[in-house]
Known about the structure:
Rossmann fold; methionine biosynthesis; 10 helices; Bifunctional protein FolD; amino-acid biosynthesis; 3-stranded parallel sheet; methylenetetrahydrofolate dehydrogenase (NADP+) activity; 6-stranded parallel sheet; 2 domains; single chain; alpha/beta; binds NADP nicotinamide-adenine-dinucleotide phosphate
Amino acid sequence: xxxxxxxxxxxxxKETIKQxxxxxxKNGKRAPxxxxxxxxxxGASETYVASKQRSCAETGITSTLVKLEAxxxxxxxxxEIRQINDNPEIDGLLVQLPLPKHINEQQVIESIHPLKxxxxxxxxxxxxxxxxxxxxxxxxxxxxxxxxQHYNITTAGKRAxxxxxxxxxxxxxxxxxxxxxxxxxxxxxxxxxxxxxxEKICAEADILVAALGKPGFVxxxxxxxxxxxxxxxxTRVEDAGxxxxxxxxxxxDFAAVAPKTSYITPVPGGVGLMTIAGLLKNTLAAYKxxxxxxx
Length: 295
Ligand SMILES: NC(=O)c1ccc[n+]([C@@H]2O[C@H](COP(=O)([O-])OP(=O)(O)OC[C@H]3O[C@@H](n4cnc5c(N)ncnc54)[C@H](OP(=O)(O)O)[C@@H]3O)[C@@H](O)[C@H]2O)c1
């Protein structure tokens, strides 16, 4: 069993981005610029946003954080988005999810300009991905395919199973793995809460991606000997013994499953870090699109 080390792979992706950004700035160009809108005080969201900003700083990407109160009106939020859409100095925009209940998340996603949609959640981005056109790939599945490529894990002809069908993770993950690309050409089954015989289907996978948000859901008997297991899950579970009062758990029962696998991602230290690498890559791509830059 080999650990798929998100820390190491993300660091190497970030280093490549940093070199490219340094080169741009050295040549008198402005740095790429990411804007993040954070609504309210969700602890997990604040942690993710802080981590995204830190990673921008490490790579030389400018970042701007717009913090709005939890009771901000939908119209005020849409107005912020419009201003950023119209700002030629900002290349990428993401609105950290989840949003407070009174705000229509889909409406917000659709109001981001598709050329600044670095989260890849806009229907235009999703449609392009579906049809195999260049686009912003949602950062988490993008991070997963970068990880598979880094470790030279063959996907072509393999049986892949993705558990979870969200627009953010499961569905785009299944599209990427089944696409006619270097990181695709797998035969993909997508599972969800209504899937029958889920355990049996998982146990047939050469590549198993767990993205359902149920800590420790994937047990050893659901995993084929030698499978590649990608754990996307991030759930905060209470832990009175820890300083923060919680710890992060993935969707895979790591201790029991790891010995059966050829490769497995740890949580933390796996897909989460790759997600940020995906976001940074998308931001650099948005910069190139918006500034007409060609390398
Ligand atoms: N590592 C990262 O950077 C990163 C990024 C994003 C998300 N995440 C984590 O990934 C997990 C999934 O996120 P998400 O946004 O995709 O979640 P989501 O929108 O809640 O979707 C969960 C999916 O899992 C399916 N599901 C739930 N319970 C199931 C069960 N018992 N059996 C089979 N399928 C089941 C649901 O099926 P139905 O459609 O039938 O309801 C749904 O499709 C969460 O833990 C989240 O925190 C991590």
